[in-house]
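Holo prediction — magnesium ion.
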Amino acid sequence: MKVLVVDDSVTMRRIIINSLKTAGFDDIVEAGNGLEGLSNMEGIELVLTDWNMPEMDGITFVKELRSNSLYADIPIVMITTEGAKTEVVEALKMGVNNYIVKPFDKETLIEKVKATIEA
Ligand SMILES: [Mg+2]
């Protein structure tokens, strides 16, 4: 399964990618913001995206994906520090399938990713 990891923090991308690799995901593409993400969607089957990013934030990225028939049904997991209930509700309304609040541990990330793709 080809996975796209979008986060403006290189360190956070490394943490996410390493976690995914331990769970057997080995086809991983990364991007530093939503705009970069949009131009790297070729063949992507699962998206993990940060919320706060320059150029294009995660929620705008999600809106863009959901308004494109090619990506309307692609599983999206939002990884964010925005743990407040209103933000989470907004993300879910925009079509995010699942969310992970930072800081998270590897097991939580893997568990949520699996639950999302098996749903
Ligand atoms: Mg960020």
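READOUT: The pocket of magnesium ion is lined by residues 7-9, 50, 52-53 (CB under 6 Å).
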